[in-house]
Amino acid sequence: MFALDVQQLAKVYKGGFQALKGVDLQVDEGDFFALLGPNGAGKSTFIGIVSSLVRKTSGRVQVFGQDLDEDPEGVKSSIGLVPQEFNFNLFLPVLEVVLNQAGYYGIPRREAKVRAERSLRQLDLWDRRGTEMRKLSGGLKRRLMIARALVHEPRLLILDEPTAGVDIEIRRSMWSFLRELNAKGTTIILTTHYLEEAESLCRNIAIISEGAIAERTSVAKLLGQLRTETFVLNLKGSV
Ligand code: ADP
Ligand code: MG
């Protein structure tokens, strides 16, 4: 089964700008997948539609066989999202951030508390549960956003540029956490504009450019191809 099956997905924003131009993309269950592309390519728009934050213009989205139009709640509850930007109340304490997210998924308060604790412990944040989010370092904020995204134990975790602007040590520790999570069975999709990140973490990759998929391949193949191209370029350059 596909974790994600997207067909002919299009998005035209108000004002007429077409951010997605008929995207077809399948991601296998269990995969660790990268959506790589430059700024403005449409990565966040794609992620936003899949995770029910942005309305699609046309096309079909299925998540573990559930259709976004027919079963929006099923799709929503299968996905955990770490958004690119955290534009919500930074005065909230860590625990409340996670509890609110549990509420978003309709989890009753009593169960939400159990889940929030589990999720915060998993990310080593339980001791900071009373700290306001704005007082956390950049790295801890990212960890909190992962804890928040995992509170309902989604089968698919989507991270939108998770390590943009994060220093290398935090990046490494986040990578190892994600690897472990994937090894335990969670399908992961991340967007990035670092090829290095895709290389170090992901098995398969799609390259998106100007709202369309330019290439869909394995990371190993892509790297082989790039090396050959660089080699040929160098060869030409030296003649
Ligand atoms: P990426 O995440 O790859 O950087 P985005 O999906 O954020 O790309 O944006 C793709 C394109 O859509 C960009 O040209 C951006 O300016 C445009 N865009 C994004 N959000 C909106 C919006 N709410 N209204 C109009 N245009 C938008
Ligand atoms: Mg983006």
Automatic annotation (TrEMBL):
GO terms for molecular function: ATP binding; ATP hydrolysis activity. Keywords: ATP-binding, Nucleotide-binding, Transport. Residues 4-235 form the ABC transporter domain. The keyword Transferase does not apply. Transmembrane segments: none annotated. It comes from the Bacteria. Coiled coil: none annotated. This is ABC transporter ATP-binding protein. The chain holds residues 1 to 239 of 311 of the full protein.
